[in-house]
Write a structure and sequence with these properties.
Two copies of one chain form a homodimer. Chain A is an alpha/beta fold. Chain A is 39% helix and 14% strand. Chain A has two domains: 15-265, Aspartate Aminotransferase, domain 2 (3-Layer(aba) Sandwich), CATH 3.40.640; 267-384, Aspartate Aminotransferase, domain 1 (Alpha-Beta Complex), CATH 3.90.1150. In chain A, the strands form three sheets. Chain A has a seven-stranded mixed beta sheet, sandwiched between helices. In chain A, strand 5, helix 6 and strand 6 (169-173) form a beta-alpha-beta unit. The longest helix of chain A is centred in the C-terminal third of the chain and has 22 residues, at 363-384. Chain A starts with a strand and ends with a helix. Chains A and B meet through helix 1, helix 2, helix 3, helix 4 and helix 7 of A and helix 1, helix 2, helix 3, helix 4 and helix 7 of B.
């Protein structure tokens, strides 16, 4: 198979990541549970990965890095733990359901008000709307860094500056950019960063987390054993323990740490450049095909290596199925968990077929995918004439 | 190191478990995200493990098996998703903080009433108290199967029968027994079963979940992308999607499935018998040592392979450190996240040193641990005289 669904998960993990997981599965005890060699070995794995993440995103302190099972959990922890009854929240129409649905529950159950920054026909944020949406009770602005559908990248620094000036807590979902693009919590005035480990960070599934500024208090969503302060009735207040209950996934976290090492050793820019060339080559190869519809802004300096498209009025699931069955190409069709984006871009019924690239792809794969799209489009165009 | 902390996590995973994780890390896509081969391969991994779990615990249907990152998350999902303002809950003094702390938050924030079944001097539940604690608004009885401190096992069937007769939802934490003892949701009238994957189920860390009876509705604790029903404002209602948001840990779940296969192929009874013989040999070897204090009931047919002890008034951390430094034996000292148990057994200050055994241990290791305890006790006794 030619795997062009890297935005869903990076498929083949580097050997170093796999080895780190194997090593942990053969040696690690339970982190923070006593002072046995095995428990301490697990502690070291977890701490080292916290440190690598804090360096990667310029987090003030490794203790402000909290591990969760995925970015969805991280976003739920952040939103549910910060937003209170009567607060106002700003988000955007390009968000994933991992942001939209928790906000819908807060609207329903806690009388939270939510406003949405609209997007233009290319899927870009209408930045000019932001200031007008801010109210006296605006507590949080939550936004993704890169769209999982169009690959468009938001200017975090610009928005972070607005939030800081208005004392609004800035929460960013970097699921589609962590490990590919430089993210700097301090420079960009980000208060909470939610990441996943299994995409461009090249770690195993079951990893992710949130990085929290020192001065941001998040009420725990879950509580339980922490290995410390057993006699406290509630979750211990110190970070990261406050937001981490039960046994940590030290096996996965070992792999995540190795993923970050791999990226650092190869050079994040170089890996991203490779994926970007594939993405751009694909875009250039398909853009002039008759009846092709392409979504997103391709005239920007930076974008995630994603190309979403449709052919005429063909159902996206049908196109994706043909690519899979006839050409052995894996893509993702449908609605991509981003309902407001599809409403904005008028693709609710059709969905989109997303091609997402990685440094692990090859130019031959890209050329073959272009050829496949051309053939399917020609057939479709000849049928519909 | 002689690893006698198996109740914290089983350390060396079987080769089959490691291989399953490697295979998944080299091939699995993102489950429920489209119909590409890689996504479907991940779907199959996840479904097969759901099926194995449903067979292991006699769950009505694999779709009623929900994956979480650990049992703590599973317990939080169950308690926070079922218990409402003004409800009454019964639990026990032998519970872990994974049960006690979520209940403390419900007491504080939702005016939930909680009563605790006491334990006797051996750490056994005072079953005779249960009926007297039931009130008109008792909604839930939540209990562990085996104590993580004493190894004592509760009679689930007896308690399940009481719950069913009174229409009380019976939630059971099987963290210390899943994979070692037969658990039957239907026979024992269990409504929600919360399990962890990384202990006796021999799976990787980062795995766990809850099994839910068909007729039990659990409100989601988290929401987000589900790969299906993108345009629903809230989490889709169907199980297990209702309680699973974001990317599943298919890599870990592959290993968990292999862990269950390993247990089934070797015979759960045989593995447990081996661990039980080690535990009993250890108990018999140390019970007559001067000034030894042993906790738990050793006169029962079944118990988890755990022996917790102290020597005279020696701090449990000191004893555990000597065992580690001088004898290379890994144990766990302290309070074991079970505050009410330590209060009941008057070991708040001293803690306990827990020895927990697995089929992976050897009789030589057990004999050596007995010798170590004898030597430390003799030295301690001679010093204090």
């Amino acid at each position: 198979m030619i795997y062009l669904d890297n935005a869903a998960t990076s498929k083949t993990k580097p050997d170093e990541v796999i080895q780190a997981v194997i090593d942990a599965m053969q040696s690690a005890g339970n982190a923070s549970r006593g002072a046995s060699n095995e428990s301490l070995s697990s502690d070291r794995i977890v701490f080292q990965t916290r440190k690598k993440i804090s360096e990667l995103f310029n987090v003030s302190n490794p203790r402000q890095v909290v591990f969760t099972k995925n970015s969805t959990e991280a976003i739920n922890v952040a939103l549910q733990g910060i937003i209170e009854e009567g607060d106002h929240v700003i988000t955007s129409c390009m968000e994933h359901n991992s942001v939209l649905r928790p906000l819908n529950y807060l609207k329903r159950d806690k009388k939270v008000e939510v406003d949405y920054i609209h997007i233009d026909e290319n899927g870009d944020l209408k930045y000019e709307e932001i200031k007008g949406l801010i109210k006296l009770n605006t507590k949080v602005l939550v936004l993704n860094h890169a769209s999982n559908v169009t690959g468009n990248i938001n200017n975090l620094r610009h928005i972070g500056d607005i939030c800081r000036a208005k004392n609004i807590i800035f929460i960013v979902d970097v699921s589609q950019s962590a490990g590919s693009f430089e993210i700097d919590m301090i420079r960009d005035n980000i208060d909470v960063l939610c990441f996943t480990g299994h995409k461009s960070l090249l770690g195993p599934q079951g990893t992710g987390g949130l990085c929290v500024r020192d001065n941001i208090y998040i009420e725990p969503l879950m509580s339980g054993g922490t290995g410390v302060h057993t006699y406290d009735s509630y979750q211990p207040d110190r970070m990261p323990t406050r937001l981490e209950s039960g046994t940590l996934n030290a096996h996965g976290i070992a792999g995540l740490g190795a993923g970050i090492d791999y990226i650092n050793s190869k050079g994040m820019d170089k890996l991203t450049e490779k994926a970007t060339i594939f993405s751009k080559t694909f875009f250039d190869g398909v853009k002039s095909i008759d009846n092709i519809k392409l979504y997103g802004n391709y005239d920007t300096q930076y974008r995630a290596p994603i190309v979403s498209l449709n052919i005429a009025d063909m159902d996206s699931s049908e196109l994706s199925a043909i690519l899979s069955d006839k050409y052995n190409i894996s893509t993702r069709p449908g609605a991509h968990c981003a309902p407001l984006l599809h409403e904005s871009m008028k693709t609710v019924d059709q969905g989109m077929v997303r091609f997402s690239f990685s440094h692990q792809n090859t130019m031959e794969e890209v050329e073959f995918a272009i050829k496949a799209i051309r053939e399917v489009a020609e057939e479709e165009n000849s049928t519909t004439i």
